Amino acid sequence: MNKLTLALYSWENGAIIMVGVFGLVIIGLIAAVMMMMNSDKKKKD
Asked: What does the alpha-carbon distance between residue 38 and residue 45 come to, in Å, rounded to a whole number?
């Protein structure tokens, strides 16, 4: 019965680092999209 209480996800083996890297990638993608949106407005001038 104790096996049923195991967590489905373990924070070992550098999982916190992987979550941090994933967050940085997402922030980078959002920044790239925002930069592209702002550069389109300058071309129309």
From this structure: 12
Give, in degrees to the nearest 5, the angle at Cα 27 between 24 and 29.
110
Average pLDDT for 2-27: 78
CA distances from 39 to 7, 27, 32, 33, 34 (A): 46, 18, 11, 10, 9
Q: Please state, in angstroms and rounded to a whole number, the distance separating the CA atoms of residues 36 and 42.
A: 10
In the DSSP assignment, the letter for residue 8 is S
pTM of the model: 0.60
